Every structure is written in structure tokens, then in C-alpha cells.
Amino acid sequence: MVCGAPALSEHLTGECMSTDDPEPRVRACYATWAQSYFADYYGADAPYPPVHREIVREELRRSGARSVLDAGCGPASILRFLAEDGLDVFGFDLTPEMVDEARRVLAAHAVPAERLWQGSVLQADSFQAAGIDSRLDAVICLGVLPHIRTQDDAQVAKNLVAATAPGGLVMAEARNQFFGLFTQNRFTYDFLANELIRVGDLQTKDGGAAVPDALAKLRSHFRMDLPPVRKGTQGEPGYDEVLSRTHNPLLLKQQFEEAGLTDVRLLFYHYHCLPPMLAHYAPDFFRRESLSMENPEDWRGMFMASAFILTGRRR
């Protein structure tokens, strides 16, 4: 399973507590994307450089890891570079078309096809395959969490940690829910109304009948028409038509610590020097200055970066 890394002009989706299984629609979304995904997000014409790639490589270098599993590898978007770095690589993905493309790409690096397989981060047995006879030095999971239901986050965290050797490195990427406080669009309203104010509870209080009028006034302060919804191109559901949620960095950190990680850090990326809806006033300036802000440990990333990587060691 993979997800489109949030490009400079892309934004957020709220929490999702659902009984519906999102995986069939997510699989359909990516089935037509296998051939172009890498170019779309890592190629020369990508809307924003893949700065997270170097964050991942640097964390792996610092950890001394020699083996790595990518849970949700897509078309080997990251694994192809880790193979070049000399790591022993493994990966699985929810979408069979992505697995086929990953095998094709990594064949050039002499990676056996059986080291890439179809699987789900929700299933513990997906983290094992031929060629893995022990826990790995590192497990990474990039672009998968947006497609995971709220109630399944803890299980995914447990599975990632369990597949890692004691002292090994875990990295999980997510879309930053706090970025919604900066964007001044419908996601700002969603965060204020549902995460902070919690209007559902407020409306049940005495005098709560006035809440809808107050919320209408609040909505008027934001661009509720932005961002546009990304739809499929070949009849499949588009990225914003499947579950593609954001995560609260602080709550996710707590969940991974409870799953067995220590020394947990939050590394922010895809900075925005201004709210994205203002980018069209000076596109080149906006892109240049946003890139100049890239610093994974800058506290402003908590609000001005659209994504983050959680990293920590297994106890």
C-alpha cells in the first residue's frame, strides 16, 4: 500500500472511525498508478522534491541498519535507493500491480522476486516471507497510515514494532493533522470544529441550539472550496475518494511508544512558507522559500509542514 506524498498544493483529510473495510477501494485507487507513481512523486517534474527520501536514508545510515522491510513499498519508490545504498531489502504492498512493478525495478539490483510480496499492514503474517528468517534491523512504512482507519492505528503500530529486532529502527510516515491549522481552508474548519471544539458534544448542552449559527459564521472565515478533490482518471476511485486521513503527531507518538518504541522523534517535511492557497501569487518564490525551510526538527514543522516521519527504536 502506498499513498501520494502530500505535494505542496495538497492538503488534509480528517479522522475516520468506520466499520467499512477501506482496503478494496484503496487497492483499486492504486491499481492504475503503478506505472506512473514514481515519476509523479519522485521524478524531475514532481510538484515538490521527495525530501523525505533523504530523511529516511540518513536515519538508516545513522542506525547502522543492514536489513530493511518496507511495509507498503509501492513500486519500490524508496527501496530502489536503499538497494543502491547496499541494504538488504524486502517489501510488500496491498496492490498486486505495485508489487509487480517493484519486482521489475529491483530486478536490476539483483533483488530476488520472492523478497517482494502482496500483503497488508493490518495482518501480522504479512510481515514474514521467504528470505526473512529473523527480525529485521529496520522497518519503514511510508504513505500507508493515511489509508488506515482510526481504530486500526494501534494494531499497525504493533505489527511494525513486532517485525523489528530489539534495538532496531522503525519509521512511519503520516500526513500532519496540525497543518490544517495553517491552511485556512475546509480542513482548518474541520480541525477546529471536530478536534478542538467538538461540536457534536457542544450541541447537546443547554443553549446548544445556537451552535449551528455560530459554526456558519466560523465557516465564513475559511476557503471551504479548497483543496479540490482529487478523482480517479480511469474509473477508479481517486486519492481523495478513498480513506486518506491525517494524524495527530502527538497522539501517534503516544501509540507507538505504547507499542514498544523508545527514543521516539517526529521529523517534519514538505514545508509551506505561506498557506498553500496563496502560492499562485508568486509560485517560484513560494516553492523556493518553502524548500529553504526544510528542517525535520524545526518546531514550525508541527504546523507548517504537511507530513512527518515518526522514528524510534524498539525496546
Describe the structure.
The protein is an alpha/beta fold and 315 residues long. The chain has two domains: 23-178 and 228-314, Vaccinia Virus protein VP39 (Rossmann fold, 3-Layer(aba) Sandwich), CATH 3.40.50.150; 186-225. 35% of the residues lie in helices and 17% in strands. The protein has 13 helices and seven strands. The protein has helices at 23-31, 37-42, 51-63, 79-84, 96-107, 153-162, 180-183, 186-197, 199-202, 211-219, 249-259, 283-292, 301-304, and strands at 67-71, 88-93, 116-118, 136-141, 164-175, 261-271, 305-314. The chain has a seven-stranded mixed sheet, with helices on both faces. Helix 5 links the parallel strand 2 and strand 3. Helix 6 (153-162) crosses helix 11. It is globular, with a radius of gyration of 20 Å. The two termini are 27 Å apart. Mean pLDDT is 92; it is low at 1-16.
Strand numbers in spatial order across the main sheet? 3-2-1-4-5-7-6
CATH class of the largest domain: Alpha Beta
**What's the helical proportion of residues?**
25-40%
> Number of helical runs?
13
User: For the residues shown, what is the average pLDDT?
Assistant: 92
| Alpha carbon gyration radius | 20 Å
CATH topology of the largest domain: Rossmann fold
CATH architecture descriptor text of the largest domain: 3-Layer(aba) Sandwich
Strand content: 15-25%
What is the element string, with H for helices and E for strands? Answer: HHHEHEHEEHEHHHHHEHHE
CATH 4th-level superfamily of the largest domain: Vaccinia Virus protein VP39
Tell me the span between the first and last alpha carbons. Answer: 27 Å
Major β-sheet annotation: 7 strands, mixed
- The backbone outline, from C-alpha atoms, is globular
| Uncertain stretches of 5 or more adjacent residues | 1-16
Tell me the total number of β-strands.
Answer: 7
Structural class: alpha/beta
Pfam families: Methyltransf_25
Organism: Azospirillum brasilense
Keywords: Methyltransferase, Plasmid, S-adenosyl-L-methionine, Transferase
GO molecular function: methyltransferase activity
